[in-house]
Specification:
Layout: E1 11-20, E2 23-33, E3 38-43, H1 49-56, E4 64-69, E5 72-74, H2 79-84, E6 87-90, H3 102-107, H4 119-133, H5 148-161, E7 166-170, H6 178-193, E8 197-201, H7 205-211, E9 214-219, E10 222-228, H8 234-242, E11 260-270, E12 276-286, E13 290-294, H9 301-308, E14 316-321, E15 324-325, H10 331-336, E16 339-342, H11 346-350, H12 357-362, E17 372-373, E18 376-377, H13 379-392, H14 409-421, E19 427-431, H15 439-455, E20 458-463, H16 466-472, E21 475-480, E22 483-488, H17 496-503, E23 515-516
Length: 518
């Protein structure tokens, strides 16, 4: 990397500004990527990272500013223009066609394809690139058959196949096991060793410090500072991001656990395609306890939470809530029984984007007093409680009548969190509660969950962030293909590597560090 500091940048962005209506997303940003380096973009939600990279990727056109690629002025009006200039972006949500094979995804959308696709030629080139960068994947496998980590390799392969020299990786480790993160970082190092430039976007500061050569911090659409990735602390980065000191240590008091709130006995549930997603799953949670569920995305976590909130039918088994059999009960009965559900999909399942803040609060409270007066709604009381949630949970909004789709992801999460916790629930199903949030918002959400724990709520915490789930949980279960691989009675007594093996489907022996197999 030291030699790359003397080389001309692969890409330069100078004075980039972009506004959406009255919201200024980028304000005169300077950013560049040099050959052989990893340049990380860091900032809170809404700081302008995604907007800047969407401009570089051709999804947005800047209001002002210039982009130079290898010293030549360029203007992109589409991602195709960007990839033609050697810039490829691997999005957090993969842009792959699930029913197609790996090799078909490689060439989809490329200009000048023959009527008869050159399958052998494509596969040979995929294998050459795979070997060169350690991105092992089966070219003829269909994407839906691949693990999340393998699908990410396909995305990176697709960019390299299209001869990208600058790769933008947006939250690339959010759904990977520790072993897969290690493999990804080796691939990144191989790419930079050959002269590629990599833009790395992540909220995981430990990973940022491990992989970055330079780090540019954005706040409110402006560059705060660009600094070396060497000899910088996590605390220093966080303070520059949010403008205040951030406490990373989880201050979790020891509690005397109360009654059993939730029991599941051999629960089985199907996914949306009618295939088994939750298999013979048994667990229990007591008052004042956080039971963490660790696992790679797509291993039954969503189906489990939906089954425990009445949103998904249970094929076999039982769900017992405070001693009452709730198997097959309507979602409204779960709400009345004191179940709060924080889904991972805040924009789809959790909130209705076209509705305003008052209406989204009322979705789960319209039948309660004082928000309901017979067949009529008391919008005055709804507005009052919504306002209190906005104030208590720090939701930044121009007003209560604003559609929630106009709020940032962090503010949407705060609103949903406030709604679900406003009724002092007995059981909280928290699925990816800090997913995609910056360090400041993450700190706030974790603190709220710990306060609920101290109040005596039972919490099922589903998270793909191993650091988070290990720090917050009193006990920790690992799920793989809908089955529990093991439960760790003391999360402090197991390593991330051991958890990663269980996440990959290896059951935990009884002898492993304070754990017990089921």
């Amino acid at each position: 990397m030291d030699s790359s500091m003397q080389q001309a940048p692969l890409v330069e962005m100078r004075g980039i500004s972009k506004a959406f209506a009255t919201v200024r997303a980028n304000a005169g940003i300077d950013f560049d990527v040099r050959p052989g380096e990893v340049h990380t973009l860091l900032g809170e939600n809404g700081a302008g990272k995604s907007t800047l990279m969407n401009i570089l990727n051709g999804l947005y056109i800047p209001d002002s500013g210039t982009i130079r690629v290898k010293g030549e002025n360029r203007r992109f009006s589409s991602p195709r223009d960007a990839i033609a200039a050697g810039i490829g972006m691997v999005h957090q949500h993969f842009m792959l066609v699930q029913v197609l094979t790996v090799w078909e995804n490689m060439i989809m959308g490329l200009p000048g394809l023959e009527a008869i696709l050159p399958k052998k030629t494509v596969i040979k080139r995929i294998q050459d690139i795979s070997t060169r960068y350690g991105l092992g994947v089966e070219p003829e496998a269909r994407v839906w058959q691949l693990s999340v980590g393998e699908q990410q390799r396909v995305e990176i392969l697709k960019m390299l196949y299209r001869r990208a020299e600058i790769l933008v990786l947006d939250e690339p480790t959010s759904v990977l096991t520790p072993q897969e993160v290690h493999h990804l970082f080796n691939t990144i190092r191989q790419m930079t060793a050959e002269g590629h430039g990599v833009v790395f976007i992540s909220h995981k500061l430990d990973e940022v410090m491990e992989i970055s050569d330079r780090i540019t911090i954005l706040r409110k659409g402006e560059v705060v500072e660009t600094l070396s990735g060497r000899n910088v602390s996590k605390e220093e980065l966080a303070e520059k991001m949010v403008g205040r000191k951030v406490v990373f240590a989880v201050d979790k008091t020891v509690l005397n656990l109360g009654e059993t709130v939730l029991e599941t006995d051999g629960v089985c549930a199907l996914n949306d395609r009618g295939l088994p997603a939750v298999r013979n799953l048994s667990l229990s949670i007591r008052e004042g306890e956080i039971l963490g569920i660790a696992g790679i995305a797509g291993n039954g976590q969503r189906e489990l939470c939906e089954a425990l909130s009445g949103l998904r039918p249970i094929q076999f088994g039982r769900v017992i809530l405070m001693g009452v059999d709730m198997t097959g009960a309507h979602p409204m009965e779960f709400i009345k029984a004191g179940v709060g559900y924080i889904p991972a999909d805040r924009k789809g399942t959790g909130l209705v984007g076209a509705m305003n803040l008052r209406e989204n609060f009322n979705l789960k409270n319209f039948w309660r007093k004082p928000y309901s007066r017979g067949i009529f709604l008391s919008w005055e009381n709804v507005a009052g409680e919504t306002g209190r949630i906005v104030e208590r949970f720090g939701v930044s909004t121009p007003g209560l009548g604003v559609p929630v789709r106009n709020l940032s992801g962090g503010n949407q999460q705060r609103l949903m969190l406030g709604r679900e916790l406003s009724g002092t629930p007995r059981l909280i199903l928290a699925m990816q509660p800090t997913w995609g949030l910056d360090v400041g918002a993450t700190e706030f959400v974790r603190d709220q969950l710990l306060r609920q724990r101290e109040r005596g709520a039972a919490i099922l915490l589903v998270s793909e962030d191993l650091e988070e789930v290990m720090a917050l949980s009193d006990r920790l279960a690992v799920i793989h293909k809908g089955e529990i691989m093991g439960i760790v009675d003391d999360p402090r007594g197991v390593t991330e590597e051991e958890l990663g093996l269980m996440m990959a489907g290896i059951p935990m022996p009884a002898a492993i560090r304070g754990g017990r197999s089921l």
